[in-house]
């Protein structure tokens, strides 16, 4: 059977002041009228049934997450005892699925993406799981770049997988992973785009058996604690694991990694400026949310969480009002909002989103 895991434990500080520790990025309606988490869960239903969707989150967010994923059984919301990054979280979720179904195939996604084409997303999800089953590999889905992007990791595809190539790439389109490139500078991003590199979406697929074998062979940060997981002691498993991402801890070390391309309008919604790509804009390219008014403005984001917000005569700015705080910055500086948060005076520290 096929399962899906939604990683929903992070806090999006780049969406301060709307985002808070209690209401982080994935719980916000950044791409539409529903939260990113609700949208992420809904588009999995089809490739995977609701009773086989697992959502991994933190203790602080558990209640709110359960409300956002109503179709998913409450028991399928897995609450981490402590954060240890994505590799331990996915090892736990995979073991949970395998305990019920030793032949489980797992699709892993993040809760905070925007997707423009749900049907194409579902096709890519099925393609990735099918490839994982047929080729016994660890699959990642790479998005075809639409611009030179310095904020995303990139994947350079290698040779076609033998069984899926059919002599010329095959219907599955699966290729070995030649290398990963993490957040290149602009010149390198342009070069990678020319060479056919793909954006690393963080959408993964594997069989439970292959995942376990590869973690045991390549991820000591997690494998040393697997006996606790086998014994059903989740607390001891997390206490004995060292934080490491699945990208670094497994995919960059294993020789069984594969990539398939996907064209489904993927965006990780990394900053306020990204809303211009994932939300409808007015005729001047502005995103207006709430009681927001922009006159003589172009290519700007104006978000009013409470009350009214009027912006006049500005270009490429982000203006956000929430919880008695107004943020004004440029679209260019918006991705570096964490630096601003580090510099906030003490009386605003409690209002931070991270």
Q: What's this, in brief?
A:
The protein is built from 14 helices and 15 strands. The protein is α/β, with parallel strands linked by helices and 354 residues long. Helix 3 runs antiparallel to helix 7.
Describe it.
The model is unreliable at about 165-170 (pLDDT under 50). The chain folds into 2 domains: about 1-265, Spore Coat Polysaccharide Biosynthesis Protein SpsA, Chain A; about 270-350, no CATH class. It has 14 helices and 15 strands. Helix 3 (about 85-100) packs antiparallel against helix 7. With about 350 residues, it is an alpha/beta fold. About 30% of the residues lie in helices and about 25% in strands. The strands form 3 sheets. Strands 6-9-7-8-10 form a 5-stranded mixed β-barrel. Strands 12-13-14-15 form a 4-stranded mixed sheet, with no helix packed on it.
Largest sheet: 5 strands, mixed, barrel
Poorly predicted runs of 5 or more residues: 164-171
CATH topology of the largest domain: Spore Coat Polysaccharide Biosynthesis Protein SpsA, Chain A
Number of helical regions: 14
- Tell me the domain tally: 2
Mean pLDDT: 93
Distance between the termini: 37 Å
CATH fourth-tier homologous superfamily of the largest domain: Spore Coat Polysaccharide Biosynthesis Protein SpsA, Chain A
Helix content: 25-40%
The CATH architecture of the largest domain can be named as Alpha-Beta Complex
The coarse overall form would be globular
Q: Give me the count of strands.
A: 15
Structural class: alpha/beta
Element-level helix/strand string: EHEHEHEEHEEHEHEHHHHHEEHEEEEHH
Strand order of the largest sheet: 6-9-7-8-10
Q: Please indicate the percent range of residues in DSSP E strands (runs of 2 or more).
A: 25-35%
Please give the CATH class of the largest domain: Alpha Beta
Rg computed from alpha carbons, rounded to a whole number of angstroms:
21 Å
């Amino acid at each position: 059977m096929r399962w899906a895991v939604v990683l929903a434990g992070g806090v999006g500080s780049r969406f301060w002041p709307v985002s808070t520790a209690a209401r982080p990025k994935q719980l916000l309606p950044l791409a539409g009228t529903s939260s990113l988490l609700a949208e992420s869960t809904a588009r999995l239903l089809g490739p995977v049934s609701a009773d086989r969707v697992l959502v991994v989150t933190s203790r602080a967010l558990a209640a709110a997450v359960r409300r956002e994923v109503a179709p998913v059984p409450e028991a399928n919301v897995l609450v981490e005892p402590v954060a240890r990054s994505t590799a331990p979280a996915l090892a736990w979720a995979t073991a949970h699925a395998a305990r019920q179904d030793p032949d489980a195939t797992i699709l892993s996604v993040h809760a905070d993406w925007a997707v423009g084409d749900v049907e194409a997303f579902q096709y890519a999800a099925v393609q990735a799981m099918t490839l994982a089953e047929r080729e016994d590999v660890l699959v990642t889905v790479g998005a075809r770049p639409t611009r030179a992007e310095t904020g995303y990791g990139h994947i350079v595809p290698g040779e076609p997988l033998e069984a899926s190539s059919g002599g010329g790439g095959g219907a599955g389109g699966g290729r070995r992973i030649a290398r990963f490139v993490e957040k290149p500078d602009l010149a390198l991003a342009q070069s990678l785009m020319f060479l056919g590199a793909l954006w690393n979406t963080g959408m993964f697929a594997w069989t439970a058996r292959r995942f376990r074998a590869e973690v045991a062979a390549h991820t000591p940060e997690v494998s040393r604690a697997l006996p606790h997981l086998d014994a059903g002691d989740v607390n001891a498993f997390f206490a004995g694991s060292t934080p490491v991402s699945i990208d670094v801890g497994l995919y960059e070390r294993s020789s069984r990694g594969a990539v398939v391309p996907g064209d489904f309008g993927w965006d990780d919604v990394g900053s306020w400026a990204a809303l211009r790509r994932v939300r409808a804009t007015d005729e001047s390219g502005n995103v207006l949310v709430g009681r927001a008014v922009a006159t003589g403005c172009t290519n700007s984001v104006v978000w009013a969480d409470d009350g009214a917000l009027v912006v006049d005569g500005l270009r490429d700015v982000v203006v956000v009002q929430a919880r008695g705080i107004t943020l004004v910055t440029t679209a260019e500086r918006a991705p570096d909002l964490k630096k601003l948060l580090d510099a906030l005076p003490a009386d605003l520290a409690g209002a931070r989103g991270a």
